[in-house]
Write a structure and sequence with these properties.
Shape: globular
Order of helices and strands: HHHHHHH
CATH architecture: Orthogonal Bundle
Number of helices: 7
Number of strands: 0
Helix content: over 70%
Largest sheet: none
Strand content: under 5%
Distance between the termini: 54 Å
Structural class: mainly alpha
Radius of gyration: 17 Å
CATH superfamily: MazG-like
CATH class: Mainly Alpha
CATH topology: Helix Hairpins
Number of domains: 1
């Protein structure tokens, strides 16, 4: 419990230092997730995921994606919201496990902004 409070205080301090104005909830969540590396797996679900390795984190992300997909097909909005939150959490955990910073993803999304999805996909294909 003390480690959770310490991680939250650390994240809050970082937010305050950065001004926090442009920081998104996903950026804040990433900081907390990343701070759980090396924490006690008996007291932190995130630390438990990290201790099981990248493959287990990726597997869990896949499970959550399927659950979100099912709720999307069913049309249960409240369950889709919950499953989407679970999926995003596990995606951020996978990013932290592989060293991907959220800003790298935000920059890639910004690069693609205003580009047709069809044109963007075509540009990725080798000639």
């Amino acid at each position: 419990m003390a480690k959770k409070k310490k991680a939250k205080r650390k994240a809050l301090k970082k937010r305050q230092e950065d001004g926090g104005a442009d920081e998104h909830v996903l950026d804040r969540l990433y900081v907390v997730i990343d701070s759980r590396k090396g924490a006690d797996p008996n007291t932190s679900y995130t630390a438990r995921l990290f201790s099981r390795g990248r493959q287990q984190i990726a597997k869990k992300l896949g499970e959550e994606a399927v659950e979100a997909l099912i709720e999307g097909i069913r049309g249960d909005r409240s369950k889709l919201v919950g499953e989407s939150a679970d999926m995003l959490y596990h995606l951020l955990t996978l990013w932290a496990a592989t060293g991907v910073k959220p800003q790298a993803v935000w920059s890639e999304l910004a690069r693609r902004e205003g580009i047709s999805g069809i044109a963007e996909k075509a540009a990725r294909k080798p000639a």
